[in-house]
Design brief:
The complex is a heterodimer of chains A (about 120) and B (about 110). Chain A is mainly beta and about 120 residues long. Helices cover about 0% and strands about 55% of the residues of chain A. In chain A, strands 2, 4, 5, 6, 9, 10 and 11 form a 7-stranded mixed sheet that branches. The model of chain A has no long low-confidence stretch (mean pLDDT about 95). The model of chain B has no long low-confidence stretch (mean pLDDT about 95). Chain B is mainly beta and about 110 residues long. The chains are: A mainly beta (about 120), B mainly beta (about 110).
Chain lengths: ~120, ~110
C-alpha cells in the first residue's frame, strides 16, 4: 500500500520560503508510471493544483501559472521523496498543502493517494 | 482552464435518504475525464469515482457517478452515517492545470 508522509514547518512570515517534503513508501519516486504532485486547499482558492515532478528517462517538472515564478518541485531518489519550495510567501499562500500521487497517461491528473496534509500559515 | 461549478452548496439529508450532487463544466470534458472525491474534516480528499462512472478500489456500490460532456452527477443511493462529508468534482482532461469544483457539503438534517 502506498503511503505519503509529509513534513515541514507550518508557520512562516511573509517573504520567507516554504519547504515541504513528501516521503514515499510502497512506491518509487523514480517510477516511470507515476507522477508526484503538490496540491493546496484554502477557503479562498479551494483545492488548487500547484505542480508536479516525474521521471521518464529524465526528470520533468511543471507547475500552475499562478505560482510558476515562485515554485520548485523536485525529487530526491536517495531518500525516495519529493519536495516543494515556494518562495516570496504572502498571507494569500496560507492553506493546507498536500502531496499526492497520480498515474500516467490518461490518469496523469487522477490523484489516488494523498499525504496527510500540512497546515501552512503565513503571518507576520 | 475548465471551470467546474457544483450544486447545491449544501445538502441537508437524513441517513437512508438519497443524495444527488451536480457538477457542471464550463466546456466539454473530453473522454469523461471527471472524478469525484470525498473529504472528511481533518482528512485529505479520497478518490471515489473516476472516468465519470468508475468506482475506485474499495468504494461501495451505493456511490454512482454518471454524466458526460459538461454535466455530471454523483448519486449516493442510501446515505450511511460515514457518508456525511464534503464532495468535490475534478477534471483531469488533457494536461495541467487540473481544476476542482468548490465542493458540496452533505450534512445531517
Amino acid at each position: 500500500q502506498v503511503q505519503l508522509q509529509q513534513s515541514g514547518p507550518g508557520l512562516l512570515k511573509p517573504s520567507q520560503t516554504l519547504s515541504l517534503t513528501c516521503a514515499i513508501s510502497g512506491d518509487s519516486v523514480s517510477s516511470r508510471s507515476t507522477i508526484w504532485n503538490w496540491i493546496r486547499q484554502s477557503p479562498s482558492r479551494g483545492l488548487e493544483w500547484l505542480g508536479r515532478t516525474y521521471y521518464r528517462s529524465k526528470w520533468y517538472a511543471d507547475s500552475a501559472l499562478s505560482v510558476k515564478s515562485r515554485i520548485t518541485v523536485n525529487a530526491d531518489t536517495s531518500k525516495n521523496q519529493f519536495s516543494l519550495q515556494l518562495n516570496s510567501l504572502t498571507p494569500d499562500d496560507t492553506g493546507v498543502y498536500y502531496c499526492a500521487r497520480a498515474g500516467s497517461g490518461t490518469a496523469a491528473g487522477l490523484f489516488n493517494f494523498w499525504g496527510q496534509g500540512t497546515l501552512v500559515t503565513v503571518s507576520s | 482552464e475548465i471551470v467546474l461549478t457544483q450544486s447545491p452548496g449544501t445538502l441537508s439529508l437524513s441517513p437512508g435518504e438519497r443524495a444527488t450532487l451536480s457538477c457542471r463544466a464550463s466546456q466539454s470534458v473530453s473522454s469523461n475525464y471527471l472524478a469525484w472525491y470525498q473529504q472528511k474534516p481533518g482528512q485529505a480528499p479520497r478518490l471515489l469515482i473516476y472516468g465519470a462512472s468508475s468506482r475506485a478500489t474499495g468504494i461501495p456500490d451505493r456511490f454512482t457517478g454518471s454524466g458526460s460532456g459538461t454535466d455530471f452527477t454523483l448519486t449516493i443511493s442510501r446515505l450511511e452515517p460515514e457518508d456525511f462529508a464534503v464532495y468535490y468534482c475534478q477534471e483531469y482532461d488533457d494536461s495541467p492545470p487540473w481544476t476542482f469544483g468548490q465542493g458540496t457539503k452533505v450534512e445531517i438534517k
